[in-house]
Amino acid sequence: MSTSEPLPTTLESNQDELYKKICEDYEDLIETLPKGKGWWVEHLYKHNGFWLAPIMVKNRLLLHTYFKSQPSDLFLASFMKSGTTWLKALMFSTINRHRYTISDHHLLRLGPQSTFPLMELEFDPTTDLTHLPAPRLFNTHLPLTLLPTSMTSCKFVYICRDPKDVLISKWYFTSKTRSKDLAPLSLDEVFELFCQGISECGPIWDHVLQYWRASLDSPDKVLFLKYEDLKKQPEVELRKLAAFMGKPFTVEEEEKGVVEDIVKLCSFESLSNLEVNKKGVNDFKVVEVENHLFFRKGEIGDWKNYLSEEMKERIDRITDEKLKGSGLILGSKV
């Protein structure tokens, strides 16, 4: 993913004066922003308190201008590598449970990444969203304060995860997808960057806190989930998710085992063993990612296999300081 790679456009959008103006504004803006080392791309830029890849800065400007939300839209928000792929599968399967049978399901053929778009990578002025049935499903890694106001009036499902597990999962993922033209990053390097908040859409603590506080202020608009809770009691969390999305399970569905069927279909074991997720690539317009890279371990506490006691204590200390007084607890201290 080149930092200078242009957004894919049609001839019409290239001629659009507004689009040209946004591109010019982006070029002017990027020159003024603080620059840090990127995990996925060469450089990240600090924009309104958060570190973004250049394409994210550009697409954020486009979203504010071109994206038109609908009141029924549902957004899956998360910090990168916090359980997004799993929650995508669960949200899509729950909303569309009357469209597919388990034996002939969309996920069996195309995988979770095909279910709904990651807006800051896949949206541009030519993106056709008219074919999407309501409620439309969208995914974003952007912090709440960087989203268009029209978006923030919609419903959000947010998932968070122990920062230590996020660090390891993100390091693994970005190492595999980082351009071969760039030198690989060691664990020590990404650990230091992570602690400084320099990570795509980081700092993670600020990202999580924005959605946490929004969930406290507007629980009808923001559902805040934890990856660890989803692992420990998936059926309970899925019922909560379905009710929040306005699609609660009926007594009849409960008796038929629909909740358990969806949990099983979307489980790490099930999805990671599907042929579609073992081969092929997913095209995010600006980068192609091999499907198998979205399925590594899906475990709680895998950080213990990588981080020293000193590293663990430093991240826990930062987490405690950042979340102090918020009422939010992330991850495990053991």
From TrEMBL:
Transferase found in the keyword field: yes
InterPro entries referenced in this protein's UniProt entry, alphabetically: P-loop_NTPase, Sulfotransferase_dom
Pfam families linked to this entry: Sulfotransfer_1 (PF00685)
Keywords, in A-Z order: Transferase
EC supergroup of this enzyme: transferase
EC annotation from Swiss-Prot or TrEMBL: 2.8.2.-
Sulfotransferase domain ranges (all copies): 71-327
Presence of keyword Heme: no
GO molecular function, one term: sulfotransferase activity
Similarity annotation: Belongs to the sulfotransferase 1 family.
PANTHER family referenced in this protein's UniProt entry, alphabetically: SULFOTRANSFERASE SULT
Official protein name in the record: Sulfotransferase
Native source species: Centaurea solstitialis
